[in-house]
Amino acid sequence: MTDTLHIEIVSPERLLKSAETAMVVVPGSDGDFGVLPNHAPFMSTLRPGVLEIFDDEAGAAERLFVKGGLAQVSPDGLTLLAEEVIDLSSVDTGDLASQIKDMQEDIEDAKDDVERAGYEKELAWMTALQDVLAA
Amino acid sequence: MPSLKDLKIRINSVKSTQKITKAMKMVAASKLRRAQEAAESARPYAERMEKVLTGLGASVVDQPGASPLLIGTGRSDVELVIVASSERGLCGGFNTNIAKQAKAHIAQLLAAGKTVKILCVGRKGVALLRRDYGDLIIDTKDLSGVKRLGFGDAQPIAREVLAMFDRGEFDVATLFYAKFQSALVQINTKQQLIPAPLTVAANDEDAGDDLAGAIYEYEPSEAAILEDLLPRNVAVQLYRGLLENAASEQGSRMTAMDNATRNAGDMIDGLTITYNRTRQANITKELIEIISGAEAL
């Protein structure tokens, strides 16, 4: 029995993070959930939101924004297949606001439903990111 | 008989060609290292994705209402052939080999009375396929502006392919690319993208072990997770194929340029010998003329 939780965050481009932690709070699509060491096997899709990584029980959390993906809790630890991970400190709020505006215009101009759905998905994570930053 | 001056000019021209090929080889070598690293770092994601899909897919595949991305449309009349090639030439038989394999596959499909649509990624493949199957090419993706291939470059292509699939424009999608093994060896690979080829993997006991060992709880549900994962899997597989292809291209170019440099070296040696012989012959001739002139006096 280990008392640390091994996590791996993988993006399509590379292995982003592999570390031992105390607890991780994951933004699951049906609600946030915390994962402690020896969590039962579990699998969930992610919604755009903040991933909080606690290195030790008292310590402050490392906060990362994930755009969506899949979390898999196995006896070996937590694996996050994240499409994209954004460091919250690197986001420019003004930039983001203009991107959201562009996206809203794109949705209005979309030719068909498939295209619109694609844009709406983009918009969803952008607004989620904005909400997180505003909070 | 070429004059000494002609020979000198030829030697110099071959020498400058050699310089170019040598430089290209070195550029390819450094690009290869980067491409190889990119391909390797993309591996963990694709592997984990495959594991999850295999575990999930095996349990869902028999249920009614499973995603057509997994079980197919039930037909195989229209096939989309995605051909990945390079953006630049001078890389040996790289593009020719891919095109050859794709062409053989297309010919086979056409012979079986199926409809084929071709999507080319990369400029060079188009040039090779246009001659025989120009009317079948529906689109060409140009990645020549891309310096470093990222997931963001593969995603739009995947999205387009998926949109086409949703509109029922094809039943099966196959990707042709060169899998990187070493700088000398690239394996031409045919990979089925849609429907996801799970049945093969599901029979492989090891692949399912990781998931079979534990009973998982799913949120929201197995089917919903799969629904989310399958389109992403197409993008990931495509991305992986393109990365492998990029590494193969550089490997192939490196080998080709190495050969070219060596050939130029051989040519220079040959020309230098001819040059020296001609020079010697000229000197001898002049000497004979002087001596025979002196004797005649």
Describe the structure in brief.
With 135 residues, chain A is α+β, with helices and mostly antiparallel strands. Chain A has two domains: 5-87, ATP Synthase, domain 1, CATH 2.60.15.10; 91-134. Chain A has helices at residues 93-109, 113-134, and strands at 5-10, 15-21, 23-28, 31-35, 42-46, 49-54, 61-66, 69-74, 77-82, 85-87.
Explain what you see.
In chain A, 29% of the residues lie in helices and 41% in strands. Chain A has helices at residues 93-109, 113-134; strands spanning 5-10, 15-21, 23-28, 31-35, 42-46, 49-54, 61-66, 69-74, 77-82, 85-87. In chain A, the strands form two sheets. Chain A has a five-stranded mixed beta sheet with strand order 2-1-9-8-5, with no helix packed on it. A five-stranded antiparallel beta sheet of chain A has the order 4-3-6-7-10. In chain A, strand 3 and strand 4 (31-35) form a beta hairpin. Chain A is elongated, with a radius of gyration of 16 Å. Chain B has 297 residues and is α/β, with parallel strands linked by helices. Helix content of chain B is 65%, strand content 13%. Chain B has nine helices and six strands. Chain B has a five-stranded mixed beta sheet. In chain B, a hairpin with a 5-residue loop joins strand 4 (172-180) and strand 5 (186-194). In chain B, helix 2 crosses helix 9 (222-296) and helix 6 packs across helix 9. Chain B is elongated. The chains are: A alpha+beta (135), B alpha/beta (297). Strand 5 of chain A pairs parallel with strand 6 of chain B, so a sheet runs across the interface.
